[in-house]
């Protein structure tokens, strides 16, 4: 599984490859990012899902 987080200008601010997963939760360390809206893209095999994320500290 690949996780990518980008800001609304398209700049990639976080990227991580995680091996085989069996569900569950994953925490992203975005403490050094400014508050605001981001796009989180999850890629698993041949499927991609994008969700909006509102970051507030």
What is the fold's blueprint, element by element?
Blueprint: E1 2-7, E2 12-17, E3 36-44, E4 47-55
Antiparallel strand pairs: 1-2, 1-3, 3-4
List keywords for this structure.
about 55 residues; mainly beta; about 0% helix
Write a structural description.
The protein is mainly beta. It has one domain. The protein has a four-stranded antiparallel beta sheet, with no helix packed on it.
Termini Cα gap: 26 Å
What is the C-alpha radius of gyration, as a whole number of Å? 12 Å
> Which runs of at least 5 residues are low in confidence (pLDDT < 50)?
none
Helix coverage percent: under 10%
Q: Summarize the biggest pleated sheet.
A: 4 strands, antiparallel
**Sequence of strands across the biggest β-sheet:** 2-1-3-4
Overall pLDDT: 93
Please trace the helix and strand order, writing H or E for each element: EEEE
The dominant shape is: globular
Number of structural units classed as domains:
1
Structural class: mainly beta
Q: Would you count the extended β strands for me?
A: 4
Strand residues, percent:
over 45%
Instruction: Give the helix tally.
Output: 0
Q: Care to give the gist of this entry?
A:
This protein is mainly beta. The chain contains no helices and four strands.
């Amino acid at each position: 599984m690949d996780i990518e987080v980008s800001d609304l200008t398209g700049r990639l601010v976080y990227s991580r490859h995680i091996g085989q997963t069996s569900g569950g939760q994953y925490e992203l360390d975005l403490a050094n990012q400014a508050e605001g809206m981001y796009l989180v893209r999850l890629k698993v095999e041949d499927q991609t899902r994008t969700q909006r994320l509102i970051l507030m500290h």
